[in-house]
């Protein structure tokens, strides 16, 4: 993904198949531009019109967008994969793209595409002329020089400069002899915007500034060296006075002058910098990081803000956990951090620092990272386990965090060094809603063949800083087998711990061993208790490919199935259990109830990747319109994480249906005036005008009718775009005044309309009723008739559109 | 963007004894003075008037010591045989003592010869004391009798022979001049009223009573005997309030501190325990070299005197209270400098420029932030840090190890610094909280400085010290493992028994259920 900052304070960035428009001022994602069928590989602003954007994609098309409105203007079909895109102000009707060379693998060429000026949206862009051959596939390997006079391409240790006017190609190459500092291959290239100067970054951390490259022999270069590892990207400021560079150190370096080695640093940006992009007015600069984050940086090298999606960490060791408080998905984030990721808004809510140590980006260091996370039932307690990456003698820490209402975050309560002698394999809290937090019990299982029970201890000493702390209460073991999983029954009375091949069931009051189950051969991979009506069952999956269900009352095997279960996930709100199997390179999903040996839902070939983790996330409100097949998804939604770090969900509705609400909302936004401010202003003026002309009933009606949306707007608009409070005050007070009239039906209807437009998941029936109400109410008042009619017409049109969609999906 | 995170120094909770007000108070004594007496010391009594001399009864002599004197300032040695229980009168002018031959002698503190001699006991008298009216003396002897004597006439007023064994201890009530208590080896303590012919109250202690004590209010009675110290409510007719079992040998003496808030008990197990009289919990304890026979505390708790079975008198004086240092403080900026501008409310059109909060970093953190490993290690190798906060040094070492730069930080040091490092490692490597880190540090130091071993005597000595420390620790661990093994066998036998019991119970339960079912 790369990014472009447009001068009017919009940040455009690529996210998968989409381009997102982000407002730097309001810190909100304004628009999602989608239309490409494959990954978008490059975006560039149209040099002749700054409100237009070129984008190219792997699907072989170049599209020209009006990004303010999200409307595609033109589509040029090239036909081959497009890997990078460049635009030039001097080349008026052509753009440059990198395409793979026909017939040869792994060789790429830079071609210019003539954009024909035809009528209509879809055009052919087949007029290709090769500019350079044998270029790198990355966007960073090609740069265009001052005013488009030349183009520079780097690959391995070779640098080529092609002068358009003179049709001259100069090649330079560095010595291939590996120096002490490592290899000196090129990693990126940029050109000075005002002078004939090329800056190149190298894999050994050096930056070279090339001059006099018009001559084949008398070229010169100077070296800047600070980075200890590969220079990931370079960027010149608008005037070319300063050079920015970034790499794996996650430090943004600003070089002032090539002769003096004066430089500024912006350290600790969080993760390695992949791309650096300057705004066209030079006020802002943004850096893209490897962990799916964009940092926006001021021109004086001050960190301003960041846009954070779901952080891709190398290995999600913690599993997918749902925070009971925020319903956010919790998993490994930045190294040593826990990210709380909101599924509704696709945003990171916050990142909790667990390890609390300075992270040093250096290869070969043994970093300690988070491996286990557990929440108590109400989300007041959080237990985390961190360990260093050493295999034999891991440095373990168990930390318990208490949620502090005042600071709205978790605070460290207890830290236990080396809770186990070997890796901790599983951890769970005893969830007992009715008993409160006093009876909380934490169980950890370890490879040191024991499981430990941790309880809260009240400190009676009044001088102690905190009233509760945790300490070990019981250590259990079974025949010196490694403990692998643990699980509490729903009422908290039983604890199941699996020791290699055996599942042991313990009484949680006396810690006596009650009974054991096993299904040899094969170690137990997952265990869970049934819930609600099925609470007498214990489900276990073995790595020998069996799914077993034991009855706890008879202590006998109820049923077993031959299934290679990778993930076993019970739904916390119903008795359903989801099992994901991995067989012959495809994952399949089975949903079943423990009391019946046959699944109620099977989805074969869910995806090609191996699914590693799954989580049920409770829905805010149960879904009503779900068909019988998806009845088990009513209360909660199922999310998967694959081994390629992709988060997936199982949706009850088809893709078209899900897209409609969002497009509907987009349409609503389009119909709105530009800013809420002008909306308010307009209303205010209109009101005044009406008050001046015709006093009486009508005015009162009008005022009330418009006041409530006005207040809504007032409350939902970011504070910094609102006019001053003294100005808004009168409108606000007016809107709060109770009129002598009763609430008219009209107003109610209007409110319904507002809500139906706002809500995303509205069904068609509701729309119809809203419209009917509207129609009847409009009979009473003729003044607003024309305006409303157009609205209802629009609605009808939209409805027709929707019906069309459903018809297609039915096909 | 994250700020630099300082090194986390792991605070380790102090294990073992908790520091309380009591421990601080009772620790405030100087190192004891030891005085050798001729025999076992059976009684120590402080004069109730200044200068608080104390009488020590040992063998056939009574020595009177001044507050700070190591030599007796006076000696009464007119006993043919062993003397017992020299006790001061309330005004501190008379002293009474029993003796092996059954006679009781009354001395003037300033005189030498006895003023009075009370003859009547046929066996040794181990207990004598003044009643609080100052004119009568009570006594208890090995002839099972407790007598009351009149001082002016030197005659016996009354004799009670209710005990059935030796009477060895007793005390008089400070509130009522007629009441005194005697404790006997017949496992009872009896309360006598001089106005009646027989004892008023009998308390069953359950063990031979070695010492009794009445609280100044007269309401509570403490008795010691066997391993128990028991507290009785006299006003409720001798009800047992609490039974304390904190010693593991016979408790021989009791004593209250001057405020009456703490109770001290000395025992043959060489310990003095101090209890709070509100909670009856042990708040502190002293250890002594040999078994304790007698114990006394001077008014204002200035001196603790303990007498041992081997005739050693152990005297501890309280340290003079440290003078509060009122050294001139560094002149600080005036108050108005702090409040200047704090109350200013910004107007609507004002721009607020917030000053970033300055974060104060420790020196080693600053150096670590700029990746100067060697200097960071230097910063935590300063003696004050190494001595008082070793956890900081270890935390920085751990951080360096995590960064992979510990080896280079340790290398290239001169003799003095290596000496300093090795001293630290040898001293702290056996502390469990530091062991994992310091073992790697020690490994690295030996690796790095192996080629130069033998060039410096100082460093070589430190290496040997380190070796010794580790060898000792290994021996210690081996022993611990042995003990653990022994305990495991013990526990194993215990659990087996319990299991069988449980099974019995279970079967019983089942049969019961069956029976109840039949009944239905």
Structural commentary:
The complex is a heterodimer of chains A (811) and B (520). With 811 residues, chain A is an alpha+beta fold. Among the domains of chain A are: 1-137, YVTN repeat-like/Quinoprotein amine dehydrogenase (Methylamine Dehydrogenase, Chain H, 7 Propeller), CATH 2.130.10; 140-308, Methylamine Dehydrogenase, Chain H, CATH 2.130.10.10. Chain A is 15% helix and 43% strand. In chain A, the strands form 14 sheets. Chain A has a five-stranded mixed β-sheet with strand order 5-6-7-8-12, with no helix packed on it. Chain A has a four-stranded antiparallel β-sheet with strand order 1-2-3-4, with no helix packed on it. In chain A, helix 2 (676-693) runs antiparallel to helix 3, helix 3 crosses helix 4 and helix 6 packs antiparallel against helix 7 (785-810). The longest helix of chain A is centred in the last third of the chain and has 26 residues, at 785-810. Chain A starts with a strand and ends with a helix. Mean pLDDT of chain A is 76; it is low at 654-707 and 742-789. With 520 residues, chain B is an alpha+beta fold. Chain B has two domains: 24-317, 7 Propeller (Methylamine Dehydrogenase, Chain H), CATH 2.130.10.10; 363-473. Chain B is built from ten helices and 28 strands. Chain B has helices spanning 21-26, 335-339, 363-369, 373-380, 383-388, 390-403, 406-410, 415-428, 435-449, 457-519, and strands spanning 33-36, 41-46, 54-58, 61-65, 74-76, 83-88, 94-99, 104-108, 114-118, 125-130, 136-141, 146-150, 155-160, 167-172, 179-184, 188-193, 199-204, 209-214, 220-225, 228-233, 239-244, 251-256, 262-267, 271-276, 282-287, 292-297, 303-308, 312-317. In chain B, a hairpin with a 6-residue loop joins strand 14 (167-172) and strand 15 (179-184). The radius of gyration of chain B is 34 Å and the shape is elongated. The relative contact order of chain B is 0.07. The A-B interface holds A 266, 268-270, 295, 303, 306, 353, 356-358, 360, 362, 364-366, 368, 388, 395, 415, 417, 461 and B 1-5, 7-8, 10, 18, 368-369, 399, 402-404, 436.
